[in-house]
Structures are given as structure tokens and as C-alpha cells.
Amino acid sequence: MAGQQYDVAVVGLGAMGAAALWRLAERGVRAIGIDRFTPPHDLGATHGQTRLFRTFCLEHPALGEYARLSRNLFQQLEQHTGESLLSVTGGTIIGHPDSLAVSGTRRAAERLGVTLNLWTAAELAARQPQHLGLRADDVAVFDAEAGVANPEGFIRAALQRAGELSAKVLTQVSVRAIEDDGNGVRIATSAGEVRADQVVLASGAWLARFAPDLPLDPIRTVMTWFDAAPGYGLAEFPVFVREIHPALTLWGHGALPGGAVKLGLGDIGVPRSSLDPDHIDRHITREDTAELRQTVSQWLGGIDAQPVSAHPCMITRTPDAQFIVGRYRRNVLVAGGDSGHAFKHAPAIGEIIAAEAVGKTVELDTAFIAPQRFL
């Protein structure tokens, strides 16, 4: 590979990296993507059958525009590749009217000029009796644009489309060092040197190795599935986020045909130990699922609280729970800090990176995800 020159190299081909490579290729950029594994794989942050897709995002009001752009790009990619990537089912956000879940979702909808349907606790109980222990002052808002997205299918489709557009993909290749000499970048890999005018660092939990001055906190979490009891199909039990109290959020969705119910607990603001991504414990213990089992037993009815499957996953948190996306150094861009809610926005993030790489802008608010807020 010595002497090969590209316009942009993308290091890491998870959701953000695959999206960036695809959107660069769509712009005619001579691009190469590099991954130490063979994506999609189950060794990082983007695996499993589903991820929640919410349009009116409680995490930041500007993310509604990201979600709508991502939805359009998911649909474009479906048309190009035939892969099923997004199923819109609607979604329910539950909590006290002043909770972050409800108030944040409503703020995001209002920014887009949308007034969400508001259900009382009694109305929610009648529509979705699976939810137990609703307080009299609990409410729910319904996001008609919510649904479930296919993470592994997206990576496959994005890399397929990028390859069709002449992007090069290197897998099972480790990046050992990256040097920005001011005129371009030199990337030392296990397969030789790659040279590019610019590089995109999208290496997930490994990103801190290449950007040590960014406040990145990789942690281990567990994805968990449960038997599909009656009333727990996706149609009867669509996407939901329920803020039980500020320190406890339960989320999930019903089972796809032939699948299982996916349930989990919120990670934002919850103490977790940082990890070395090369030495993550991939063994699942009962302790790993104890809090979730207790929460399911107490707050959901008619479902066995013993999970049928569980798998470790790595997410990378930031101090403000927002992504870190944009130009980091003269010839270096970053796309990371997923904070556990980035997958739904990956196509939009890829578009932001691709536009930045060619000196263009996108009609999105990007200040709240810019690396400069930490530099």
C-alpha cells in the first residue's frame, strides 16, 4: 500500500465511519475506509438486530433535524441496496410532565413546529396496559415518526454503496499511528502506509488513542432481550422511553416477527467504570442484568423478567452527553462520543463529516457537537 494517496481516509467503520465513507463517496471524493475487524461485527457499539429511532429527541432539541435527515438517507440507501433499514412504528415517551424525557421530547417537536399528542396516565394505561405503576400525574407523548432501525444492515449497506461508488475498504487492518504533517496525513497500518489529504477518526471506543485531549469515556453496557409474551409484539408494544424517576429510565420495544423484546436502562449520567476497549469483559453475569430484571418485574406486566439473551456493547460518553463531530485538527476530523444515542443520527453525522471534508456546510446546528467546545 505504500505510496497510495487518497483525498480522505476514514479510520473505523462502525455506524459513523461507514456513514462518512458512504457520504464522501456520494460526493465523488476519493476515499478509503479502514477497520481492524470486518464490519459489521459485535466487538464495538453497532451490532444486534435493532436500535431505537426517535425523531423528537429528548437529548437535544436540534437533533430532530438530524433525525429527519437521517430518515431520508436511510430511505435512499434502502432504495440503492434493497436492505431494510428503518421501520416506522411510532413511539411513546413517558414520565412526569417536567421530566427530561417528556419535556425534552416536546421541546424538540416544538422546534420543528410539531404538536405531539399528550396522553394522561389513564389514557396510556388503556392504550398500552403493559406499563405498570403509572402515577396519576404521569403523561405520555406519542412520536409518530419513531421506530426501529437496523444497525448491522446499515453498515453493510453503507459500505456496499460506498464500494459501488469506488471507495476502497480495508478490513482486518489495524491503524498504528497517524501523523498530520500540515500538508496531509500519513497513516501507519498493519498493511503498510496510507496517505491522504485528510483523515476522519471514527474509531468508537478506540478514538481516545488518536485524540487523547478529547474527553471521551468508553464504558461497557449490556444489550438485553426477553421472551415475546402475548401483547409484546412490536405493533402492540412499540418503541418507548419511560423516565420512572431522574435516575432510572427504562426503554425498549416489542418483538419483531420471530424475534424477542428488547429492553434496557438509560446510561446517561449513570456511574460506570471506564474501560480499555481491547480488554472488555464479554462474559455476562447475573449481576449485569440484576437492576434491569428488577425494573422489568416492577414496571412491566405479563412478561418474564429473566432475559433470554444478553450481549456486551461499548458506548463512549462525553461530559455533556453529546457527540463530538467535526474538524479536530487542520487535516483531521472526528466522529465519535456516541453517548449511547448516536446510531439513529449516523447518516446525518456522515453527511456533516463529508460536507466539512470538502469545505461545504449543512443546514444543521452543529455547534453543540463541535470538538472545539472541549479544546
TrEMBL record:
Keyword Oxidoreductase among UniProt keywords: yes
Cofactor(s) this protein cannot do without: FAD
Domain FAD dependent oxidoreductase: 7-355
Organism domain of life: Bacteria
GO MF: flavin adenine dinucleotide binding; sarcosine oxidase activity
Family annotation (InterPro entries): FAD-dep_OxRdtase, FAD/NAD-bd_sf, MTOX
SUPFAM superfamilies: FAD-linked reductases, C-terminal domain, FAD/NAD(P)-binding domain
Keyword field: FAD, Flavoprotein, Oxidoreductase
UniProt-listed NCBIfam families: PRK11259.1
Name of the protein in its database record: FAD dependent oxidoreductase domain-containing protein
